[in-house]
Amino acid sequence: MRIISGLYKSRKIVAPKNLPVRPTTDMAKESLFNIINNHFYFDEISVIDLFAGTGNISYEFASRGTEQITCVDQDHGCVKFINQTADAFDMPLQVIKSDVFKFLEKSSLQADIIFADPPYNFTVELFAKIPELVFKNNLLLEDGILIIEHSKHTDLSHLENFDYSKSYGGNMFSFFEKQ
Length: 179
Fold this sequence. Notes:
Layout: H1 26-37, E1 46-50, H2 56-63, E2 68-73, H3 76-89, E3 93-97, H4 100-106, E4 111-116, H5 124-136, E5 140-151, E6 162-168, E7 171-176
Parallel strand pairs: 1-2, 1-4, 2-3, 4-5
Antiparallel strand pairs: 5-7, 6-7
């Protein structure tokens, strides 16, 4: 994987092969960040990266100037890799080892953008728990967005606070906002 833009543009990051992850493709990530760039100034926002995996999305935010980034993942190897990479690049990432649903239930941390990249094989009920907990616990700041990455075969448009979705290859990003 590589960082698309910003301070660390074109830097390649190689994750260990034994991590249980499916990093967002560069094409999908570039398209996603073009959308985000039209709505936010990266150096003025806070981000929570759920199911952070390799940290791919968090590194992109950090490279573009975001200084308040929280990564949440329950896998020890992923947490260790994100911490090592953040240290190597001197990125301002706070990494939390936790089950994402437990984190969402207990956290009072708010952000402008909450990005979730859960396993594609989640049931629709598990996908639905993400926006349910985010909005129930008021984890988005005013005018904030929740973005869930999922397979194009999963439809989340019926969920409360759904706004729109964009498809890039086999990847889909669904955007949720307070109504």
